[in-house]
Amino acid sequence: MNWLQLSYQYAVGGVFFFLTLYLCFRPGASDLRNFSDRRALIALLAGLVGYLAFHTAWIVLASQ
User: Does pLDDT of 1 surpass 70?
Assistant: First the structure.
């Protein structure tokens, strides 16, 4: 996998991810003042960034 494929995967996947987040956290659907909802949002974003970092490191190590 090269960098173009990685960027495409996270660009297209990111659109769907953030569209879903919008649907879940739009006004009236959830409340970010609620600790549980806020923790869920942070966990989802941390998971996306963590997987992106892992995936990027994997590509870097494989290309050496």
Answer: no
CB 30 within 8 A of CB 37: yes
What does the alpha-carbon distance between residue 59 and residue 5 come to, in Å, rounded to a whole number? 11
Question: What's phi and psi for 27, nearest 5 deg?
Answer: -55, 130
Condensed to tens digits (0 to 9), the pLDDT of residues 3-46 reads 888 999 999 999 999 999 999 988 888 888 999 999 999 999 99
**Residue 1 CA to its chain's centroid (Å):** 19
* Structural tokens at position 55: 């995936």
Q: Please measure the distance between the N-terminal and C-terminal CA atoms of the chain and give it in whole angstroms.
A: 13
Q: Please name every residue paired with 59 in a beta bridge, in sequence order, or none if there are none.
A: none
